[in-house]
């Protein structure tokens, strides 16, 4: 999951976001609406991402998530009981695609013990330094986390809050990781990563999903994202 600002969660979209874990919902880029709520850009260029249950309800992305290649890779990684916790189609629109600030996925997808979450990030177009490729801090997956996003009590605005503080990182610590169309980037749950705003005229579309190794792991009940009766976290090794 990409970081979500308190400003975003304090508005009417809070419940829409918080209850999106078992649905397919649409999230817009900042600055695409005027004060009347009308689009300032074409609708098809206004979407930031679609999430967070494409893996369960969209036939194309369900097949992509559970493909034999993905399952084989998960087994090679030693995952015995991986479950899919969320999925997103991220657009990084040309000219307006916003930055994703430095973060660790475990801040938002917390497990006990840590080390149980892995992101699968698939480039659907070339991802370059110009259009917003990923950047990583090498070795940062070994330093633990210092901040968690948790749900606040029902009815509270904002609907989430942060415990702890994020470390400060210098630009020189990050290494760019350009990716070609069709490339897969595996993201450790505690590695620090980011992407810059897309100021180019080329989009940078990706499909990404997160797995949790459910064996000997506990998903935090304080996470914003929770399994539901309608959609328990599905096993990667089955497609039903």
Q: How many β strands by DSSP? A: 14
Instruction: Write down the Rg.
Output: 17 Å
The CATH first-level class comes to Mainly Beta
Could you give the order of the helices and strands? HHEEHHHEEEEEEEEEEEE
What does the largest sheet look like? 6 strands, antiparallel
Give an account of the 3D structure.
By secondary structure, the protein is an alpha+beta fold. The chain has one domain (6-219): q2cbj1_9rhob like domain (Jelly Rolls), CATH 2.60.120. It contains 5 helices and 14 strands. The chain has helices spanning 6-9, 13-18, 54-57, 59-65, 68-76, and strands at residues 24-28, 47-52, 82-90, 100-103, 111-112, 117-123, 134-136, 147-151, 160-164, 175-177, 184-188, 193-195, 206-213, 218-219. The strands form 4 sheets. Strands 1-2-3-13-6-11 form a 6-stranded antiparallel β-sheet. The chain starts with 5 loop residues before the first helix and ends in a 21-residue tail after the last strand.
Any chance you could write out the topology, listing elements then pairs?
Elements: H1 6-9, H2 13-18, E1 24-28, E2 47-52, H3 54-57, H4 59-65, H5 68-76, E3 82-90, E4 100-103, E5 111-112, E6 117-123, E7 134-136, E8 147-151, E9 160-164, E10 175-177, E11 184-188, E12 193-195, E13 206-213, E14 218-219
Antiparallel strand pairs: 1-2, 2-3, 3-13, 4-12, 5-14, 6-11, 6-13, 7-10, 7-12, 8-9
Descriptive tags:
6-stranded antiparallel β-sheet; 4-stranded antiparallel β-sheet; disordered N terminus; 240 residues; Jelly Rolls; 14 strands; single chain; alpha+beta; Phytanoyl-CoA dioxygenase domain-containing protein 1; dioxygenase; Phytyl_CoA_dOase-like; 12% helix; dioxygenase activity
């Amino acid at each position: 999951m990409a970081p979500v600002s308190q400003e975003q969660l304090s508005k009417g979209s809070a419940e829409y976001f918080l209850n999106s874990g078992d649905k397919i919902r649409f999230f817009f880029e900042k600055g695409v609406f005027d004060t009347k709520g009308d689009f300032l850009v074409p609708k098809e260029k206004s979407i930031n991402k679609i999430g967070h249950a494409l893996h369960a309800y969209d036939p194309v992305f369900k097949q992509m998530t559970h493909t034999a290649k993905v399952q084989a890779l998960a087994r090679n990684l030693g995952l015995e009981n991986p479950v899919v916790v969320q999925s997103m189609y991220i657009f990084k629109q040309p000219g307006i695609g916003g930055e994703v600030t430095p973060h660790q996925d475990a801040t938002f997808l917390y497990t006990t013990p840590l080390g149980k979450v892995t992101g699968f990030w698939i480039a659907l177009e070339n991802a370059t330094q110009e259009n917003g490729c990923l950047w990583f801090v090498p070795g940062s997956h070994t330093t633990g986390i210092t901040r968690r996003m948790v749900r606040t009590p029902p009815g509270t605005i904002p609907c989430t809050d942060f415990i702890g503080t994020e470390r400060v990182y210098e630009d020189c610590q990050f290494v760019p990781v350009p990716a070609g169309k069709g490339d897969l980037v595996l993201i450790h749950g505690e590695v620090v990563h980011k992407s810059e705003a897309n100021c180019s005229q080329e989009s940078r579309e990706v499909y990404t999903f997160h797995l949790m190794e459910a064996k000997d792991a506990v998903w935090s009940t304080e996470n914003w994202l929770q399994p539901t009766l309608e959609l328990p976290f599905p096993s990667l090794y089955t497609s039903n």
